[in-house]
Design a protein that fits this description.
It contains ten helices and two strands; from the N terminus they run αααααααααββα. By secondary structure, the protein is an all-alpha fold. The chain folds into two domains: 5-74, no CATH class; 97-178, no CATH class. α1 runs antiparallel to α2, α2 (19-35) crosses α4 (57-73) and α6 (85-91) runs parallel beside α8 (112-120). The chain is elongated, with a radius of gyration of 21 Å. The protein starts with a helix and ends in a 12-residue tail after the last helix.
């Protein structure tokens, strides 16, 4: 059955009361409405979602972006349903930046609050329980480390880097899925 403007909008109205269980379908329909400009009688997509669906624009945009990312990465409905819409909207922007499996696994295991902290680069630990480590690396080794961490969320800041701890721990979790490397003891 080919969707018309009328049927798509009617379906969106019904789904808007059950976002938790219908976020993927809602996102797909919102993308369709936006792409085909079926919102045009309202003047803008924002006006459409606020008037027709009683949704905040940011939530509608996030649902649409999440649905696009799910399609782009060909994620299974089962995986997305297990994670839930709140966590999917949080991690969707990161899924294209680094290893999607890492973020999906983290979203399945952790609470929304912990996941939010991880995305911000916070460890969730109080300063008294943190430990600092110093490594003596060559310039090439340092560049290689920065490149690896950048693939897992490290971001350059005005002075230094942001999300260092979260990126390092993401790399550690990724390494646990492969056999540990043997290191030679220092002489």
């Amino acid at each position: 059955m080919k969707l018309t403007r009328r049927t798509a909008i009617a379906r969106l109205r019904r789904l808007s009361v059950t976002i938790e269980s219908s976020h993927l379908e809602m996102g797909d329909l919102l993308c369709l409405v936006q792409g085909k400009r079926w919102w045009s009688p309202y003047g803008s997509f924002r006006s459409f979602v606020e008037a027709e669906l009683s949704l905040k624009y940011r939530k509608a945009a996030a649902l649409c972006a999440t649905a696009r990312k799910v399609k782009e990465l060909r994620l299974s409905r089962k995986t997305v349903t297990e994670i839930g819409w709140s966590k999917m909207m949080l991690i969707a922007p990161r899924l294209g930046e680094s290893d999607p499996a890492l973020w999906l696994d983290l979203a399945k295991r952790e609470s929304t609050a912990t996941l939010t902290q991880a995305l911000r680069g916070e460890t969730g630990m109080d300063p008294e329980s943190r430990r600092a480590r110093m490594f003596y690396l060559t310039e090439d080794e340092n560049d290689e480390l920065i490149d690896a961490l950048a693939q897992h969320g490290l971001e350059r800041a005005k002075r230094g880097y942001r999300n260092k701890e979260a990126a390092l721990m993401a790399l550690v979790h990724l390494s646990r899925s492969t056999p540990p490397r043997k290191f030679k003891k220092a002489a």
